[in-house]
Amino acid sequence: MFGGRSMMIGVDLGGTNIKAGAIFNSGKVLYKISKDTNPKRDKSQIIQDIIIIIEDIIKNTTNDINTIQSIGIGVPGVVQKGTGNILNCPNLNWHNVDLGDILKRHFMREIFIENDASLAGLAESVFGSTKGYKNSVFITLGTGIGAGIIIDGKIYSGSHGVGSEIGHMIVGENFYDCNCGRNGCLETFASATALIKYSQKRIDEGFIETELIHNYKDLDAKMIFDFAYKGDRLANEVLDRFYKYLTIGILSIYDILDPDAIAIGGGVSKAGDKLIERLKHEVSSRVFIKSIKYGEITLASLGNDAGIIGAAILGEIMKSH
Amino acid sequence: MFGGRSMMIGVDLGGTNIKAGAIFNSGKVLYKISKDTNPKRDKSQIIQDIIIIIEDIIKNTTNDINTIQSIGIGVPGVVQKGTGNILNCPNLNWHNVDLGDILKRHFMREIFIENDASLAGLAESVFGSTKGYKNSVFITLGTGIGAGIIIDGKIYSGSHGVGSEIGHMIVGENFYDCNCGRNGCLETFASATALIKYSQKRIDEGFIETELIHNYKDLDAKMIFDFAYKGDRLANEVLDRFYKYLTIGILSIYDILDPDAIAIGGGVSKAGDKLIERLKHEVSSRVFIKSIKYGEITLASLGNDAGIIGAAILGEIMKSH
User: What b/e sequence results for B194-226 when a residue is b if at least 16 CB atoms lie within 10 Å of its CB, and e otherwise?
Assistant: First the structure.
């Protein structure tokens, strides 16, 4: 696998942008395109854009679809196994969209489609931070929390395609409900949104000795980390809570999946090594069996390209198993 | 697999009994032996008993070890992959015991060793309640909570053998700590022990209008279920709490593993269909994506024999993958 010189194409369909690129066997993205998703458009227009982007990449690289080893697409939602059709994609308001069928008819070949976080996890496990590990979990801490589970070198998405929704594990009771309608999802404690909401709540409650108060309306995760390092009491309280619940989430992943490694990506992971060091410290002091080595915790390394790379290589990974 | 007429032997090493039996391809246990474990003895004596039991089964069945297709052992702890040595087994106070090596030297062949709950899950998936499903989770609600995860027809125990510890997922904050040293483990909310401890706590706090008060010192799970069905207010409060947290645990299993089915076994599962019906109701109203079919929730069907059966077939399952 990845031994030949043929090219693979990956498309990362997001709520904001459609990003795509060509990769060769090194895993490097060599030709990259990005276009606004404009998600309020009719889905047929978005699908048409995906087709145009793929055709553009072919034209500007090998100019022959038969030399393309694999074409894959990552979507921010739940994909039906086998068909590549989309069951549910909240950011695009897509429900039961036959994306796989449409693309297959157009290109006269199979187009591999998967959840975007699963594909980022796959890319990390082939070319990135969890390379060489059989079992790994990729967690992306952004506006929400996404995750990809790799078992035995393959994406594991469960029997109905709804596995690896680690952001919706219930890890406590929270002061606001999750978008999914439940209370206590990890996403409501450890996403960027969660950091902001809890900061605002504490200010609303009267916590005023904090620099965060001056940025009440445009708080972001970076700001909270930066002020915490400067000693801001509220920012530190917010991060203490973030680490507490992210630790609980990781401990549950250890207890269920016991992976070789857990990679942390997404916007919040820009806090970098300090985040990883504190997480390692909190997790290692609370593992179930102290005498046993647990999975490594590490920063994801492929950044925004992970989704494109994972989509591009999906077909090859599936063929090789 | 299981096509021939050869016999398999399974041993279920528990903290109270060593149970063992011979099974043929039907999955039925045909020759069964049980002996007190007497766990305070030196481990060499317990291992000697395991050897005697296996030899006794051979003598009383085919009388020829070469006709035995497979010999397996389930242990209540963490087993090292590859060697079958025991890393940690709290009920027996065994740490780093080279059980696999000792038995291999004695019988001059590989003896397959795995965690007991994983083996019960395997047995359920081959002959019992989750038969025919690729991905399933078996949860045993007893003094503690054990679990077995079957992925793609095989036991999944993680990269270090400590996966499937579903009883130690943190699902809330509790009034007492878990034996593992952490707070909030599922086991402290949804095991038989948890039901008893919470009943006693509420009585200690002054809840006196309950029949449970007359059995304060010898409460058990069955009693709590029975009184709840008779309308006892405290028993119902205790069960409400039990269902609340067991539901959270199952939702997290759905969100991570999304299995085809979850089977509930162990002493608490004697509450039977009523337990399953209520659990199904609570879980289905709170799943992450309402429009998608999630895994079936069902009662385990093999009872106490599951451990013996799973141990007996382990070798064949491993060879067939």
Answer: bbbbbbbebbeeeeeebebbeeeeebebebbbe
Read off the tokens for B136: 């399933």
Closest Cα in chain A to B149: A256
SS3 state of residue A23: strand
In B, minimum Cα distance to A87 occurs at B292
Residue type (1 letter), A109: R
What pTM was computed for the model?
0.94
Check if A33 contacts B (Cβ < 8 Å): no
pLDDT in tens, chain A (321 residues): 555 557 999 999 999 999 999 998 888 898 999 999 999 999 999 999 999 999 999 999 989 999 999 999 999 999 998 899 999 888 899 999 999 999 999 999 999 999 999 999 999 999 999 999 999 999 999 999 999 999 999 999 999 999 999 999 999 999 999 988 899 999 999 999 999 999 999 999 999 999 999 999 999 999 999 999 999 999 999 999 999 999 999 999 999 999 999 999 999 999 999 999 999 999 999 998 888 889 999 999 999 999 999 999 999 999 887
Q: How much is the ipTM here?
A: 0.92
Question: Which tokens hold the place of B220?
Answer: 């058990």
Cβ–Cβ of B88/A291 closer than 8 Å? yes
How many Cβ pairs within 8 Å bridge chains A and B? 145
Q: Shortest CA distance to A252 belongs to which of A298, A286, A299?
A: A286
Distances in whole angstroms, Cα of residue A113 to Cα of each of A8, A118, A165, A318, B267: 14, 11, 17, 11, 44
- Chain B contacts of A149, Cβ < 8 Å? 256
Please count the CA atoms within 13 angstroms of the CA of B275 that sit on its side-chain side: 23
- The answer to whether B247 and B283 are in contact (CB under 8 A) is yes
What is residue A76's three-state secondary structure? coil
